[in-house]
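Supplementary Methods S3. Complex input for the pyridoxal-5'-phosphate-bound model.
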Amino acid sequence: MSPTIDTKSPVVHHDLPTPDPESPTRTRQPYKLSTLCVAVENPSMKDQYGSSSVPIYQSATFKGVGNEYDYSRSGNPTRSHLEHHIAKISSAARAFAVSSGMAALDVILRLLRPGDEIIAGDDLYGGTNRLLTFIRTHVGVTVHHVDTTDPNAVIPFIHPTKTAMVLLESPTNPLLKIADLALISKEVKERAPNAIVVVDNTMMSPYLQRPLEHGADIVYDSATKYLSGHHDLMAGMITCNRDDLAKQIAFTINSVGNALTPIDCFLLLRGVKTMAVRMDRQQATSQLVATYLHSLGFKVHYPGLPDHPGREIHQRISDGNGAVLSFETGDKELSEKIVGSTRLWGISVSFGCVNSLISMPCVMSHASIDPAIRAARGLPEDLIRLCVGIEDSSDLLDDLEHALVDAGAIALSAQQNKYVRVPPGHAALNKAVEQLAIGSSNSRGVEHEWFVSAPGKVILFGEHAVVHGVTAIAASVDLRCYGLTTPRNDGKLSAHFNDINDFQAEWDIESLPWGASAPLGHHERHPEDLDQQLIEAIHAGPLRELGPDKDQARNAALAFLYMYIKLTNAERPSVHFDVRATLPVGAGLGSSASFSTCAATALLLLSHRVTLPSIPPPISAEHLHLSHHGRHALEKHNAEEANRWAFIAEKILHGNPSGVDNSVAVFGGALTYNRPGFGKPSGMESIQGFGSLRFLLTNSKVPRDTKKLVAGVGLMKQEQPEVVGSILDSIENISAQAKRSLADSTEFGRENLLRDLSVMISENHKHLVSLGVSHPSLEIIREKTAAPPYNLSTKLTGAGGGGCAVTLIPDDFSDTSMKDLLSELTECGFDPYLTSVGGSGLGILSPYPEHRNTSAKDIHPGQVTPPETPDEANTSDPGDSIKASFETKSLLELTGWAQNLGKWLYV
Ligand code: PLP
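Predicted complex, serialized as C-alpha cells:
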C-alpha cells in the first residue's frame, strides 16, 4: 500500500518553527537552513524511545492490516523520516528517496508519453544524456538539446501542447554554465501551461539552491553527492510541491520498486546533518582554487569568478557557488599529465564527497557521449574538473601547484619571481628541453653531472635531556658533505666514499637485485617501513664481499644502493657517485644525515623525482641565514621530497632516527625538537630570523658509545629522580630562553644574543657534567677556551663522552687570538674547525648555463665569491672539470672551489 496523497489538500511547507509565537513586536523567524539540516525532527513520527538518531527499520514487511506501513517497497519509517527531512530543506511539500540519481530521473521521465517533447540542456551529465537517448529511441519521445543558458534559444522550441517537459541543470556539469531557472520556468508556463519544469539540482544541493522557489515543478538530486557527502552510498531524491505529480511519482516508485533501502536512508540522513558545514568549507576552498588557476591565466569555469558570464543570474537564484569547477589547459595530453600528477586530489568520477577529486570529463564521466556530439556541444577534450573537498585549502593548493609544475603547465619565472603559465603547446616541448638542458638520464644515457651539498648539524642545547621530553635546539653547521654524480654510460654503477677509508666499489647495474623490490610509481611515496627483503638482497648480492671491518662503508653503500634500486628502476642510470665532506665523520655533527641528503638528492635528480624548472629560478639575494652565501632557489616540494628520502637513508643507517639531522641537512638554519610521548606538542619547529653565528667546533677524536651514554642518564634518572628532574628542568629553561633569543631579530635582541648564549652554553655544559656525560678530553677543551685571554664559553655537543665541543666566538674575537687558540688545541691532539652555525641547507649546483661560472677552472684557493657577471664569452662546459678537481682539492680548498663553480640553488 502506498501512503495516501490527498491532491486537494493545501501544500504544507515543512519548516521548523522557532519556539516563539508570532507577536506584533517580533515576527516569527524560521530557522536558518544550516540549522534545519541538523534538526531531523518529524512531529508526526515521534520515536517511542526518544532515540536521537532515526532508527533503521530494516524490515520488508510490517504486521497488521490498515496500518501506515505494510511493505517497504511502498513505504518504510526510516525512508519517511528522510523524505520529510529533505522536503523540509528543499522548500518542498513532498520528497521521495530512490536508489540513485538516475533512478530519480527514470521515475520522472515515466511521466512522459510517446509523442511528447522534451527540451533539455546541451551540457548535461553524461548519464542523463544516455537515458534521454534511450527514451528517444525506445519510447518515442522527442528530445531537443538546446543551450539553456540563453532563454531565447529555449523559446522557439516550446510548443503549447507537445512540450511536456523542460529539463534543466544549473550550473551545468562540467562547464558550470548558468541557466536562468526562474525566467525559463516563467516562459515555459506562459507558453505551454501543461509542461513541467524539471531541475537536476545535484551540483548545488538544496543548501545552495532550491529551484522549487523559482517555479520548477520537480527537482531531483543525485544524493550520492553533496546530500550524502561521503561517497558511501548511492541515492536519488525527488522533491515537488504539486500533489498531482507527487501521486504519480509515488505510484511509479511503488510499481518499479526502486525506493531507497532503510540502511541507505539512515546513512543519507546522517550525511545531510553535516551538509551545511561541508558545503561552506568546500565552497570557500573552491573560490581560492578558482582564483589561483585564473590568476595563472587558465580558462576557469566557476560562477564565483567575477568574469563568469552567468554570475549575476546565479547570484539571484542561488545562495552560493558550489564546490565544482573546471579549467582548460589548451592541451589534452598536458591535462592528462596534471591529473596523473596530483596526490591529494583523487582521480575519480563523481563529486560532492569530503575528499577532493580531479577528473577529465571527456575520458571519464562524459565518455558515454559521442566525441562528435561532445565537440558540437563545446565540451573541450582538455577540460579538467575539480571537485573540492574539506581538506586544508593550503594542502590542496600546494598539491595542485605541484602537479602543474610536474606536468610542465607552469614554471617559475625569473623575472617575476613567481610561477607563470607555460604557453599551451610549449609545455611538452619545454619539459623535453628541460630534460635535455639540465641533465637527463634517458635509457641509461646520462649526459650531465649533478653536484649537491648539505650541511652537518650541531646540537646547541638540550642533548640527552631531549630523550626525557626536554626541547632540543639543533642548527646547521657550515661544514658540508658534497656529492657528485658523473655519467659513466657503460652499464656500471660505482661509488667512492672518500671519507670512509677511501671506500670504492663498482657494480654491474643489471646484476643488482631489482627483482627483490616492487617498483615504486613515479609519484608514489616510500612506505613508512623499510623494505627488509631488498635490504637482505643487497647484503647478499652487491655487498656480500664486504667484511665486518667495513661496517661504516657497508652501511653507506647499503643506503645508496637501496635508494638507487627504489628510485631509478625506470632509468637505471649508469653513473659514478663521489662523496667528500669537510665535516668530520662520526663526531656527532650529523655527517651521516648530510651524506644521506646528498645521496638522496642526487638519486632524486637522476630519477626526475626532483626536477628543476625549465626557466632558471630567481635567486634571491638575501637569505635568512647570513652564512654560506645562501640563496633561496629550491622549491619547497623538492626540499620535502629530498627530506623524505634522506630520512629513509637515515633509517637504513641508524634504525630509528628522530629526523632532526636530516631536516637540518635539508632545510638549514635552526630548529627546536620535542620527542613525542611527553604530553606536550612534539615535532620540529624552525627558528627563523637569526643571522648565522661563529662557532669553533673541536673534535676531541675520542670515540663515543652513544647508546651507553644515553642508558647511563636513564639509570641515573631512575636512581635519583629528583636530582635528574631538576637538572632536566634547568635545561628546559635554557632551551626555551635560547629559542627566544635566537628568534629575536630586533637590534636589541641581536646585541644581547651573543652574551646570553655564552651564559647559556656554560650553564648547559655544567648540567651535562652533572649527568655524567662529559669526558676529560672535553674538559680540557673547555678549560683551554675559557682561559684568559680567550674567555670563551664551551659546551659538549651531542652524546658527549668524547666527540665534539662547541665554542661560541664573539664577533670581536681577534684573528691573533683565534690563531693562537687553534694552534693550542691542535697541539693537544684535537681537530678544531672554525665554522658558522645556522647557514644554508641542501644546495644543488645550478645546472643553468647562465648560472655557471665559466672561469671556475682558474679559481684560486681562498677566493670565495663568484664574479658578479659570469664570463659570457667562455661557453665551455664547466662540468668538464668538476670530477677531476673534486677528487683532488684539499679539504681547505674544497668549499671555496665548490662555491666558485657557479651559483648554487639552496632550499
Ligand atoms: N545528475 C548529475 C548532475 C550527476 O553528476 C549525476 C552523477 O554523477 C547524476 C545526476 C546521476 O546520479 P547517480 O550517479 O546517483 O545515479
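The pocket of pyridoxal-5'-phosphate is lined by residues 100-102, 125, 127-128, 173, 200, 202-203, 222, 224, 234, 236, 350 (CB under 6 Å). The chain has four domains: 45-273, 277-437, 450-457+480-657+841-906, 692-837.
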